[in-house]
Amino acid sequence: DRQTLVAVLQFLRRSNLRESEEILRREARLLGDDLGGSVATVATSSPGVAAVAAVPSGKGEPRGDCEIGPSSRREPREVRSPVSSPNSKITHSGDAIGGAVVVEDQPDVSAVLSAYNQQGDPTLYEEYYSGLKHFIECSLDCHRAELSQLFYPLFVHMYLELVYNQHESEAKSFFERFHGDQECYYQDDLRVLSSLTKKEHMKGNETMLDFRTSKFVLRISRDSYQLLKRHLQEKQNNQIWNIVQEHLYIDIFDGMPRSKQQIDAMVGSLAGEAKREANKAKVFFGLLKEPEFDVPLDDEDEEGENEEGKPKKKKPKKDNVGSKSKKQDPNAPPQNRIPLPELKDSDKLDKVMNMKEAARRVRLGPECLPSICFYTFLNAYQGLTAVDITDDSSMIVGGFADSTVRVWSVTPKKLRSVKTAADLSLIDKESDDVLERIMDEKTASELKILYGHSGPVYGTSFSPDRNYLLSCSEDGTVRLWSLQTFTCLVGYKGHNYPVWDTQFSPYGYYFVSGGHDRVARLWATDHYQPLRIFAGHLADVTCTRFHPNSNYIATGSADRTIRLWDVLNGNCVRIFTGHKGPIHSLAFSPNGRFLATGATDGRVLLWDIGHGLMVGELKGHTDTIYALRFSRDGEILASGSMDNTVRLWDAVKAFEDLETDDFTTATGHINLPENSQDLLLGTYMTKSTPVVHLHFTRRNLLLAAGAYSSQ
């Protein structure tokens, strides 16, 4: 195009490459466009036009607006060189050393480049920072809130740059002068930062390596961004401008700047906010169609139940289409998008039981709150670290710090193991009650203890069919236990560090685990290697949850973000930021549309998965929230916390009349209603028992669990 030709011709003339200039001019003339005459006049007569020249960048390869292979791909960003006029701009993807240079009114190209390259004077860093701070604090209210987001990432990078270049005393005084100005939710990060005082310390520190390599994301309106840019260019403040370009990703949106409340709701994670692009992918959040089969309509269902709480002698007829014709949810994934296990006869029996129980389910609401039954673990000197309850509420499992896994029967039915092989061979396999006969009465007890882990057990999960149990531990393994024999079947080794959480898919067969190595892994019970590895979090993966349709997995992390992953291809399809501390609990609403998350900041945040937006904030807890659960029909959200309370929230009201219009989705201008207190339906104190697990039975009785602490 014409501008580029003009710029290149200028460059050739200045470099005294007359021959090349002549050749290029002849070529250009062939295009029927005479660029001859005085080239310079073209450029000067239109100061608003920026021209781009590819400049050798030290290694001798020309670097224009070019990608240099997958390893150094950068997001294209809007950049302006300090010498260009206010209305010229170019995007560039390349390193900070001016991948593209603006040539205008013939400035000296090499001077522009060196401006990017030089290390700033260490003694001026405090001046640079306080100058910017003064500018932001004196700017208009509407811009101040947005630009204040720059303080923290700039502070960290300037400090790290000083430490890295071994200006230790300057770094120390810089830290002492400005660390008090940062937002309170960055205190933990600043504590880590203050211990890095030498270049050597930076090598081993993973958090800071992440901070240096992953771009900190800020979402700023175009007006505020222009204001910042103009200020930095007038002040010739290259040091800060370099950091903005090299280490920050500024997600610019058109429209009104956001208010302090809107920004505060969304920031606080280790790497800033999520880019808007990160939440654009389509997510199939609908539910899969239930398989269809006949439900026997007889009322003698209270008769003898066999060992798994399933009715005896009633075999529903095989799939009979049309018994329960639900329409396919338009937002649901295709039925065969991921392979799911076939339903066994026992699963069908269980589904029938489930439907019968559901018919007697209590409809909850503000006028009809659930009863809560609390299971307190007394004298749990082993240190209770994890709890799970089977879907039919017949068994409860505890994982303990002494590395044991303990399973209790909650019903009058005792837990029994299968007989030994020799005894099994004597049984008549054709008899009606063969399932009853294979159980060994001599082994019946209320409690079974499973030994095998060599460290505290941090996560437990029953399979939906109640035949298996998963446990994960500090020893880096996930173990699969049989609830028929109460022995360990498999030890899955993949994590090299503690595994903080594990969970079975709602359809069985698949399970997910997440740990200190910052990745979540998807497994199948019959593979000893993981099927998918979900990598992207910048700190420990602290909790994991399957979406009700099993096509997605949510992970919460100590980097204060929640990510939603696609099981099919391993892609991250949502990143939610807004919590101010590590995430410790996740719950999907039964209809699959919403996600509730709880963290150490004592807030429950509600997210609309389809639009990728925060839609609510429930304040009330005063300590970490370790348990979240929606009632069976999604009317009520229960939260359990270290503050020894269970709180019930009105989920219907929280999710009605959501403002999820296209504008909100495009800019992230969320308006959270300040109505936590209206949504809170009840607070229930325990004597001195932190709540670590919640579970709604099939009839909507709420079960809660925790270990009594005598402090």
Could you explain the architecture of this structure?
25% of the residues lie in helices and 26% in strands. It has 711 residues and is α+β, with helices and mostly antiparallel strands. Among the domains are: 1-28; 122-273, TFIID subunit TAF5, NTD2 domain (Serine Threonine Protein Phosphatase 5, Tetratricopeptide repeat), CATH 1.25.40. The radius of gyration is 31 Å and the shape is elongated. It starts with a helix and ends with a strand. Mean pLDDT is 79; it is low at 30-118 and 299-325. One of its GO terms (biological process) is transcription initiation at RNA polymerase II promoter. It holds the Pfam family WD40.
What gross morphology would you assign?
Answer: elongated
Within the CATH hierarchy, at the fold level, what is the topology of the domain at 122-273? Serine Threonine Protein Phosphatase 5, Tetratricopeptide repeat
Level of helix content? 25-40%
Overall mean pLDDT: 79
Low-confidence segments, given as residue ranges, are 30-118, 299-325
Strand content: 25-35%
State the end-to-end CA separation. Answer: 75 Å
Number of H- or I-type helical stretches: 20
**Major β-sheet, in short?**
4 strands, antiparallel
Subcellular location: Nucleus
Biased composition (Acidic residues): 295-306
Organism: Machaerirhynchus nigripectus
Region (Disordered): 53-91, 295-347
